[in-house]
Amino acid sequence: MELYRLTIHEAHELLMKREISCEELTRALFDRIRIVDYAIRAYITLDEDGALQKSRVLDERGDFTHPLAGIPAAVKDNICTKGLKTTCASKILENFIPPYDATISARLKSRDAVIMGKTNMDEFAMGSSTENSAFFATRNPWDTGRVPGGSSGGSAAAVAADECIYAIGSDTGGSIRQPAGYCGVVGMKPTYGRVSRFGLVAYASSLDQIGPITKDVTDCAIVLNAIAGHDRMDSTSADMPVPDYTLSLKPDVSGMKIGIPREYLGEGIDGEVRHAVLNAAKTFENMGACCEEISLPHTEYALWAYYIIAPAEASSNLARYDGIRYGVRAKDYSDLIDLYKRTRSEGFGAEVKRRIMLGTYALSSGYYDAYYLKAQKVRTLVKKDFDRVFEKYDFILAPIAPTAAFRIGENTDDPLKMYMNDVCTIPVNMAGLPGISIPCGFSGGMPVGLQIIGRPFDETTILQAAYAFEQATEYHLKKPCIEAGGHAAFSRDNRCKHSSDFTEREIGVDLGAPQDECVKRRNVPNGKGVKA
Amino acid sequence: MKIAKQTVDHVANLARLYLSEEEKAEMTEKLNSILDYMEKLNELDTTNVEPTAHVIPIKNVFRQDEVRESLSLEETLKNAPDRDGSFFRVPRVIEE
Questions:
Q1: Which residues of A have a catalytic role annotated?
Q2: Are B34 and A431 an interchain contact pair (Cβ–Cβ within 8 Å)?
Q3: How far are the Cα atoms of A238, A264, A271, A436 from residue A294, in angstroms, in the given order?
């Protein structure tokens, strides 16, 4: 049995039955990393010794009651982990070892999670391809010539390549959902305030949210259960009751009303992506839901406002990197101001500098009201659009990106595509809503993500819808074959099935089946739908 | 109105960044794009619209002013690029 392929709920069951040990599971994953990560490069830092030590302690104690106990996880490198380097994929933090845990790290540890390492990302979470890391680019497990998306690209790629059982990411303008979509895994941005951000390196504080990236929807609910809830260390975390999200895993959407916003399916959306999303709508209708076209008229303005708000908040948040208290300090300097300037100019990458400049300008004397305040007012209108829709509809269906993953280095200069890329994810952050990306098809052999957007604090409904869709389809069971596919000519594991073995009938709907990629159905010990 | 290179120099100083001539040229262009975004936003009448700072209904979260454990001095200074005993060390800032 390939232990690294397990989901959380599958591994949990095996641990509970003592069929596997935590150490075996952890070793299997590090072995897997040794085989595939040279091609994927999902991790910045690995903590094999720490993880194995933890696994032995857990095995000795033998209590795997909590569904996350003994399950190896990867954490995005902008989330503080005590004693484990946290770089934000930036040179300015390349030596930073946090003296404390982020609340989410502490919560995972208190549930006896095994933290394997820290995943690559766009520097300070600014980007959508993980090419913007100061260290190296991460590659898409479905085709190593393509990007995994971003900024949580390392986390999504690690899950898709079975280099961890699940991962944690962060999402400011789509940074969990888009890489999850590009890598064919499940990624959720919970409602703003649902998960504590204490210890998350701040990018844009009114938009940032932490969330899970997992192999299926059941796992997503399990992780959300562990990380959601109020935290006295984050005064923007909501003091609201947290339901048991695993109770929402019911394959039932009958009678639900679904809105499909026309602004999200406009020109610029790739034909196969549109087809996959509309096919998903059909699947929901076949299950007894009702789909209607809706309009979110301020969609375009959500983007213009985001382009003001995100850099403004970033410029303020990144003012703390000054080379005084932590991080890298420039070597030669004449005085304090020179020290600041040299440290920041040498430490930040081009994209980070760009956004700091934009934000500093937008907040500079005399401009605040005209820019930032105006953008915040527009944000109110964006939120009202969604409020109106949710009076009538239970959730919204949309694409997660206009195309499947693009090639490394292929900076699109098609303004329509760039525009649609932002349309798909940014308004959800602007309105603080929960959104989930789940696999819903393929385009040219690459996974396509379906986005389900819900009411504030109603993660339950979108999990239920996502679960119902997952039960009705088999996209989530398809796996990339890194060893034989893409640019990683590796044949150690030759058991990957070819797409010809995987008929459209099995999938249920038109796949746009991959030509060369290997696909494989996982051999699951206990079938699907195992509640944990 | 167009943003001049002088403005870029001013903003770079506020942001505590040195920019190469090449970067300055690029930033001038980027800052001008903000004006385009604003032009778009100004299409909307927001006269009677309240701003949304963030979307959840939370305001002024207070707590008791209690003494609680915090990081030790040693842990706090561990990442310091330069230190002197229990202090962060910086270049001289007070003129003699």
A1: 76, 151, 175
A2: no
A3: 29, 10, 20, 19
Alpha carbon of A472: minimum distance to chain B alpha carbons (Å): 34
Instruction: Let me know if residue A227 belongs to a domain.
Output: yes
pLDDT at residue A500 tops 80: no
B49: DSSP letter: P
Q: Average pLDDT, whole number, for chain A?
A: 90
Mutate to test the interface with B, among A81, A239, A304, A352 (most CBs of B within 10 A): A304
Measured between CA atoms, the residue of chain A closest to residue B60 is A235
- A428 in Cβ contact with A452 (< 8 Å): no
Higher-scoring residue by pLDDT: A31, A1: A31
Q: Does B73 touch chain A (CB under 8 A)?
A: no
Q: How far apart are CA A408 and CA A487, in angstroms?
A: 12
Cα–Cα distance for residue pair A69/A11, rounded to 1 Å: 10
pLDDT score of A361: 94
Q: Which domain holds residue A525?
A: 481-532
> Are A466 and A489 part of one and the same domain?
no
Q: Determine the residue of chain B that is closest to A457 in CA distance.
A: B56
- Fill in the amino acid letter for A449: G
Place of tokens 């800052």: B31
Examine residue A383 and state whether it is found in any structural domain, yes or no: no
Spatial neighbors of A415 by CB under 8 A, at least 6 apart, are none
- Mark which residues 218-277 of A lie under 8 Å from B by CB: 232, 235-236, 238
Average pLDDT, integer, range A237-242: 94
Q: Which of A330, A243, A251 minimizes the C-alpha distance to A288?
A: A251
Cα atoms in the Cβ-side hemisphere of radius 13 Å centred on A55: 24
Residue A62 has pLDDT above 70, yes or no: yes
Q: Give the CA diameter of chain B.
A: 58
What pLDDT is stored for residue A481 in this prediction? 86
Q: What is the pLDDT of residue A410?
A: 86
What local confidence, expressed as pLDDT, does residue A416 receive? 78
pLDDT greater than 80 at residue A10: yes
CATH number of A140's domain: 3.90.1300.10
Note the ipTM here.
Answer: 0.95
